[in-house]
Each structure stands twice: as C-alpha cells, then as structure tokens.
Amino acid sequence: MKRLLAVLVVSMLPAIPACAPSATAVDDESTTTAAATTDQPAVTEETTPPTPPVEVEPSPAEPVTVVAPADEMEIITFDELNLNMQPDVVFRPFFLTERVKQLDGRKIQIEGYIDGVSASSVKNLQEFVLLKNTECKFGPGGQADHLISVRMVDGKKTDFTSKVIQVEGILSIKPFEGPDGNTWSIYELSCDAVRERPRL
After folding, report:
1. Angle at 110 (CA atoms; ends 83, 167), nearest 5 degrees
2. Which residues of 19-46 are buried (b: 16+ CB within 10 A; e: fewer)?
C-alpha cells in the first residue's frame, strides 16, 4: 500500500525539462562574465599634443641695384662685370648676369690699367685693353670678364701709362674669340675720354 502511494505522488509532480539550466548555473555565468569584464584593463584615449607653430625666418633681401637714367653716365667697377669665368673658356650667353645686361649699351665710367703687352705703342693709342688689375692678362690664361677692349672714337688718342686711368664711353657686349678658339674678351668700350685717376 505504501509503495502504491509513493508511485501516485511521483506521477503528480510537474516534469522538469532536462536542458533547463539551474538558477545556480546562470548566477555562476553572470558572476564569471562580470569578473571577466572587471579584469579587462581600462582603455585610455591618447591625446596628441598640439604641434607648435613653425617660425619661418625671412630670407635676406637681395641687393638692390640703382640704375641711372638712360641719358646719364653710370660709374661702375669691374666687380659689376664679373661673370665668374675661368681662364681659357668659350663664352656662352647664359653667363651674362642681369646687371651686365642692364649695362649693355649704356654710357659708363670705369677705372683700370692699360695692358702694356697688347698695346701697339706707347704714344697715340687708338685701341688698347683695359685690365681690372695688373695681375690680369689678355689672351691665353686670361679671364675674359676681367678686361675691356677700348676703342677711341672721333679720332681721339691716348698715351700709355702704368697708372690707374678712368675711361668713359658706351659699353657693349661683343665677345672676341682668340686664335686658340677661346674667348679673350667680352666687353668693348667706344671711348670718348681717358684721364688719370685724380688723387684723393
């Protein structure tokens, strides 16, 4: 009789699904997930520091060349005619500087020395070579931008001197090729006045 009652009681209990997780198991998973979340390191957003402004230094101002009016004579030096040419080279038009281009066809005054080697005589010269200094030379081994071929105009003449002279006239760019095929001179001066440099 007791066994029969036990069977009846068991049959009246509600069925429990086999795959339903227990409350304890769910709690354990929640605890594990929370723990895993807690163990992860906090992500800190990196902030890039602002780039300091770059100070740009102003470029040095280019030297300003004051050009005299076309009808006025310019007093110049050989430094303004310098093209940085080496001895025994052939002239090329791209050698010319802007300053030299400005002086082409202008009336100028410049100082220098008469080349005694190329002078045809010591009296009544109608043509001569004006050198930048006494170390310069006309011909092989010379620098063509360190001298000027001078031609007297209107029948004027001058005499040789070893002193510094001043010449005046119209400057032209007229390269002269020597027998060796190199450029011996670049400038020509149609000269109307020659004088010794005044003493200071």
Report:
1. 130
2. eeeeeeeeeeeeeeeeeeeeeeeeeeee
Quote the pTM value: 0.66
147-152 and 165-177 strand pairing = unpaired
DSSP 3-state of 71: coil
The DSSP element (H or E) to which 191 belongs, if any, is: strand 183-196
User: Which residues are 109's β-sheet partners?
Assistant: 75, 168
Mean pLDDT of 89-96: 96
- Written as one string, the DSSP assignment of 100-149 is HHHHTT-EEEEEEEE-TTT-S-SSSBSEEEEESSTT--SSTT--GGGEEE
Q: Count how many Cα atoms sit within 13 Å of the Cα of residue 142 in the half-sphere of its side chain.
A: 29
CA dist., res. 173 & res. 150, Å (int): 12
Rounded to an integer, what is the distance from CA 172 to the centroid of its chain? Answer: 29
